[in-house]
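Quick one, probably user error.
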């Protein structure tokens, strides 16, 4: 059927067929898959998971609001009840030490009345501990003083905050170690709210403190799954309540993430994503915070994704089989052409392909046949050329002089000169032999710094023998710097400039210093010669920049015919941007050249 369709369709290029097949079998399924994924997953999963988390927080928040409202109710009752306030204001002015027996009895009755009232107020709702503490230290409680002495509240660090509280304002005290002896074993932490009692002149005459155990708050978290975390935090994200008592008092660990302006309710920690949600508790600045593993939060929605993925997989398999069938039909001529190429690779240059298609594969087959014809012709031409080349090479070899013969002759001359006692001339011949060997040897592109120092030492020795006045040459190189490798003949052109131009072939001093500092390699060449004018130095520095471009022009003065700019170019090509070269000079004060290879680290 496919062959009949091919006959009816006009011939198309191979590229057209591949593109058309790719669109049918890959692009369309990919677009459908992407659409389904985006539609059913990702944002919808995240929004649903966040909605579920907020719903749980809202339910827990309503429970906590009820607890805190009960605490405020108890404080409001004490603050608003006129009879209790009359008793409290009266007793705030009485000194227990000067009270008479009749007044003591009346005071006892009033104490019992206040204590009974606050005890009745706390019967409804969660159990709470109410403390009324007057300025003179007199106190009323719904718990025994043996359980806790209320006068100790004066020493609490948060107590001073109450002086700035007016009216219905309150100070909420986060989780603190439990002070009540009867609760300390079973409930290690407590949460309190405190208000001031003021007279008509706004002067404080007492305080009311309502306290509950932290485990009452913790009950809101008990039904949560094992990995989900819900906690109560204050405005500074200090943990006030948590299923794990060990975390109470710690800072919420992901403060930086949630304060990021681009935060999207996803926290990444320990290579796992967590869903973050929070819920405001009343108007006290506290929050309920939930941190839930993202996989757990989207578990139900993820099952939908798995079904969609299964549909995608089946679709992909169908499209893949279709693609495989179509490509097999299209690429069959290519397989034949590949077999022909393997036959040619084995050495048979007489085989030819017989693909008759009118597309690019047919053209390739025809070109392949023409190429084989051309290869056969070139083999014949190359064979003839190689025969002529061998004859030419033989003629050249016969005319060559072995460089080692020259070195052996120089060594023989040096030995004869030494026998006659002319050690200075022998040393000169030895230095010349070393320099000639290094110049002729083309294999040594990179040499150790120790060998480079040896080259310039021989060079200075030869120059001193030529000049009337000798140049003093000092070397100060660290052991590690000796092991560094650089292009050969880097120091020689700089030393040559110092002798010829800097010292003007007169007596003077040249020093070479090299060392490693934090893996960076530094070379410093300095002379005490005539130096350069400011304009000459500026012109030289312009030539020693990458913006100036590399030049093939060489300095024709000196032994090596390699100028200082050529040194800069060769080092740049070897070390790239890590290399830098600086020249410092003043007239009459000499010249300093600093070469550095900054590797970093």
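Nope, works fine. Designed sequence:
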């Amino acid at each position: 059927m496919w062959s009949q369709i091919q006959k009816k369709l006009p011939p198309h290029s191979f590229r057209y067929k591949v593109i058309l097949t790719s669109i049918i079998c890959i692009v369309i399924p990919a677009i459908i898959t992407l659409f389904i994924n985006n539609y059913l997953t990702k944002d919808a999963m995240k929004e649903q998971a966040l909605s579920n988390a907020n719903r749980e927080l809202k339910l827990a928040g309503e429970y906590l609001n009820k607890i805190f409202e009960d605490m405020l109710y108890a404080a409001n009752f004490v603050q608003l009840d006129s009879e209790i306030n009359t008793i409290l204001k009266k007793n705030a002015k009485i000194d227990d030490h000067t009270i008479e027996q009749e007044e003591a009895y009346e005071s006892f009755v009033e104490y019992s009345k206040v204590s009974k009232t606050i005890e009745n107020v706390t019967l409804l709702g969660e159990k709470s501990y109410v403390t009324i503490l007057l300025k003179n230290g007199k106190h009323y409680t719904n718990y025994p003083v043996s359980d806790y002495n209320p006068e100790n509240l004066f020493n609490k660090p948060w107590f001073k905050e109450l002086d700035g509280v007016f009216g219905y304002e309150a100070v909420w005290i986060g989780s603190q170690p439990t002070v009540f002896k009867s609760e300390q074993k079973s409930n290690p932490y407590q949460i309190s709210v405190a208000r001031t009692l003021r007279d008509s002149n706004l002067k404080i005459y007492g305080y009311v403190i309502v306290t509950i155990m932290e485990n009452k708050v913790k009950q809101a978290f008990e039904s949560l799954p094992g990995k989900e975390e819900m906690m109560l935090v204050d405005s500074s994200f200090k943990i006030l309540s948590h299923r794990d008592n060990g975390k109470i008092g710690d800072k919420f660990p992901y403060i930086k993430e949630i304060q990021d302006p681009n935060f999207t309710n996803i926290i990444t920690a320990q290579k796992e994503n967590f869903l973050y949600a929070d819920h405001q508790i009343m108007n006290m600045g506290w929050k309920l915070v939930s941190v839930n593993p993202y996989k757990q939060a989207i578990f139900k929605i993820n099952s939908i994704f798995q079904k969609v993925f299964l549909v995608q997989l089946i679709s992909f398999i169908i499209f893949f089989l279709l693609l495989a069938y179509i490509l097999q039909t299209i690429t069959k001529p290519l397989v034949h052409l590949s077999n022909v190429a393997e036959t040619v690779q084995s050495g048979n240059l007489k085989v030819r392909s017989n693909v008759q298609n009118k597309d690019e594969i047919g053209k390739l087959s025809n070109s392949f046949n023409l190429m084989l014809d051309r290869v056969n012709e070139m083999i014949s031409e190359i064979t003839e050329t190689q025969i002529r080349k061998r004859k030419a090479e033989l003629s050249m070899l016969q005319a060559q002089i072995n460089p080692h013969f020259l070195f052996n002759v120089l060594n023989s001359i040096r030995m004869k000169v030494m026998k006659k006692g002319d050690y200075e001339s022998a040393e000169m011949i030895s230095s010349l032999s070393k320099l000639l060997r290094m110049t002729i040897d083309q294999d040594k592109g990179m040499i150790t710094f120790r060998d480079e120092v040896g080259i310039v030492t021989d060079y200075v020795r030869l120059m001193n023998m030529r000049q009337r006045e000798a140049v003093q040459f000092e070397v100060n190189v660290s052991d590690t710097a000796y092991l560094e490798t650089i292009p050969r003949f880097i120091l020689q052109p700089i030393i040559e400039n110092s002798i010829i131009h800097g010292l003007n072939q007169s007596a003077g001093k040249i020093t070479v210093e090299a060392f490693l500092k934090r893996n960076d390699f530094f070379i410093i060449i300095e002379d005490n010669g005539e130096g350069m004018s400011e304009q000459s130095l500026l012109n030289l520095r312009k030539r020693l920049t990458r913006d100036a471009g590399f030049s093939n022009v060489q300095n024709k003065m000196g032994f090596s015919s390699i100028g200082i700019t050529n040194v800069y170019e060769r080092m740049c090509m070897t070390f790239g941007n890590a290399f830098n070269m600086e020249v410092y000079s003043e007239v009459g004060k000499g010249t300093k050249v600093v070469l550095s290879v900054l590797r970093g680290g």
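The domain at 219-299 is CATH 3.30.450.20 (Beta-Lactamase).
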